[in-house]
Amino acid sequence: MSGTETTNSKISCDLEVQATDSPPLHLPQSVDPSGGVGHTEDDDIESANSEAYPEGGLKAWTVVAGSWFGTFASLGILNSIGTFQAYIQEHQLQSYSPGTVGWVFSLYAFLSFFCGVYFGPIFDKYGPRGLTISGTAMMAGGLLAMSFCTELWQFLLAFGVACGFGTSLLFCPSIAAVGHFFKARRSLATSISSTAGGLGGVIFPLMLSSLFDSIGYAWATRAVALICLCCGSIAVFTIESRLAPAKNARAHPDFRIFRQIDLILITAGIFLFEFSLFIPLGFISSYALHHGFGLDFSYNLVPILNAASIAGRILPGYYADLVGPLNMNVFAVILSVVACFGVWLPAGHTAAGIIAFAVLFGFATGTLIALAPVCVGQVCETQDYGRYYATSFSVVSFACLISIPIGGSIVNANGGDYAGLIILTGVIYAVSGFVLMGAKAYVFGLRNWAAVY
């Protein structure tokens, strides 16, 4: 018997044993835009054998490096919105309520993810170059325009709209391109590139809090714009795709992929934890100021949180390749619940308590942000990764849109007290954990709760 026949016989036997002894598995099925299912379980086996991933090498790690710089210029700004919001709330827009000012940054976060519903399919069809060029120009231009802003509508257009589009244009290909070069080590590679967002969330707030006093808000913001321009330019020349577009690829979103129940549940889980995630990111500095901490201490909580998130991206990213990205995200959700109810709520008014919360929550946040795209990638073929990731996160983007304004309204309704906001954050985190476990139960059944996924 030939080697091929032996392998095929072994696969057949394994599938028969699985069908007899285990509950049925709901394997990923890509949806064909024409209306049918793009491939079957047999196609999955054939695809797994035919797709050869470099899993390393000069070109693959160059793409990861380019992704790192693109993520620094996009997610680095996203992780720094707390510093911008606290400063603008105290100066240019001091006559507006926190809920109203929050719309500037929630609009930015919303567009950062929602626009991917179009940019992801464009990446799958045409590659990353046009996206990264446009994203770099819009990020630098939006920040430059923001340095001149004094009115609410100006901040909405410059930061909310222009930087929101720019972040999405840069971030989407930065994440999707890594998946073209890594499969077995995708969680680790994606986590490495996403550390840039955490590092940017350390460098930019520290830089801004120092420059605000020395050279003023306008030139401090322009300095950030210059850094984003340089990092984005590196991403333009180093990020590339490897796999040819799928036969059914098109440069338009396709929400019919939500026929997959596992994708619906994963997207719902990400939606819930992203809603909760942006509340501490947006309010931790304002919370500290409310409790009487100094300006420098309050602003520095954001870089402390983001520094912890760097470790949260690397270490769980390594273990996610062993135990599964969704399992690691469930662990991060549990840690977030503990941080909210065990530290922030009872002890956040003390210096030790708020620092401990920033470290715990930052670590968990890094894991969730880094591995969420990898969770989505488990339910599709690599050629469809950009489309699936972008479409899923277009739904998640609505959580980013409403979380900060709702949080600000809750604080106002409670007379400036943050207890209700903290409780809401922890409860929604807990619900997201149950939804993610529901996705795993759908795929593997209730008895295989320890399966790698």
TrEMBL record:
Q: Which CDD domains match?
A: MFS_MCT_SLC16 (cd17352)
User: Molecular function (GO) terms listed?
Assistant: transmembrane transporter activity
For this protein, the record's InterPro entries field holds: MFS, MFS_dom, MFS_trans_sf, Proton-linked_MCT
**Transmembrane residue ranges:** 68-88, 100-119, 131-148, 154-176, 188-207, 219-240, 261-285, 297-315, 327-345, 351-376, 388-406, 418-439
Region Disordered: list its residue ranges: 1-51
Q: According to its record, what are the GO cellular component terms?
A: membrane
Question: Does Transmembrane helix show up as a keyword for this record?
Answer: yes
Q: Where in the cell is it found?
A: Membrane
List the Pfam families: MFS_1 (PF07690)
- Mark out the compositionally biased spans (Polar residues): 1-11
Q: Which organism is it from?
A: Bionectria ochroleuca
Annotated Major facilitator superfamily (MFS) profile domain ranges read 60-450
Query: What is the protein name for this chain?
Result: Major facilitator superfamily (MFS) profile domain-containing protein
Highest rank taxon of the organism: Eukaryota
Where is this protein chiefly located? membrane
Q: Which family does it belong to?
A: Belongs to the major facilitator superfamily. Monocarboxylate porter (TC 2.A.1.13) family.
**Keywords from the named record:** Membrane, Transmembrane, Transmembrane helix
Report the membrane topology from the UniProt record: Multi-pass membrane protein
